Amino acid sequence: MKKNEATGPLASGVRAQDRPSVGEAKDVSALAELHMRPGFLFRRAGQLVANIAEQETAKIGLTAPQHVCLIALNRWSAMDQISLGKALGMDRATVGEVIRRLEARSLVERNADERDARRKIVTLTLAGRQLVAIAEEAAHNVSEQLLAGLEPDERKHLIRLLSKAVGALNAVSVTPVALPGS
Question: Of 5, 4, 11, which Cα lies nearest the Cα of 31?
Fold first, then answer.
């Protein structure tokens, strides 16, 4: 541990000047216990992730969902709209709106599937492919900010544990992640 590094339950974002006085110690321990609950920590982590992601993606003129859709399309090349939503844990309405907005900016295009006209295949346009390199850099910046307080081995361990926890809950999610072909 680094010298002067904040530790303990109140290290999760409470500044020294915001800490209560000695007379309020009982209240602090009650809050400290709350701050150590998995649900609180997941919710707080989600808030921080969303804030950092919004700041980084806004720099390149995207929302976080638009950003992740562009990256997914770049890695898969073309996907039908429903499979894209499932791969990213987005419901049909959300992915439809995200794609509509990306299409309005000429970053993606939707075309009817040759075998089933109801199925829409989404692909990146040239402008979308050009934006992906910048989008990948923004994703890297988000990851670096989120993991800045951890050592390299701690980062790997956290990712492994989060993957395990999220994977165990996927089946009960309202929008479970399902990769194409699975």
Answer: 11
Contacts by 152-160, CB closer than 8 A, 24 or more apart: none
Q: What tokens does 130 get?
A: 């050009």
pTM above 0.85?
no
Taking alpha carbons only, the member of 98, 64, 68 closest to residue 81 is 98
Residue 179 lies in a domain: no
Compute the Cα dihedral for 86, 87, 88, 94 and give only its sign: negative
Query: For 31-88, what is each residue's pLDDT tens digit?
Result: 888 889 999 999 999 999 999 999 999 999 999 999 999 999 999 989 999 999 999 9
Distance separating alpha carbons of residues 64 and 141, to the nearest angstrom: 13
The CA-based angle 44-71-101, given to 5 degrees, is: 85
Domain count, the chain: 1
Which domain CATH number covers 57? Answer: 1.10.10.10
The residue behind tokens 């829409």 is 120
Q: How far apart are CA 57 and CA 123, in angstroms?
A: 20
CA distances from 87 to 64, 73, 79, 96 (A): 15, 10, 10, 14
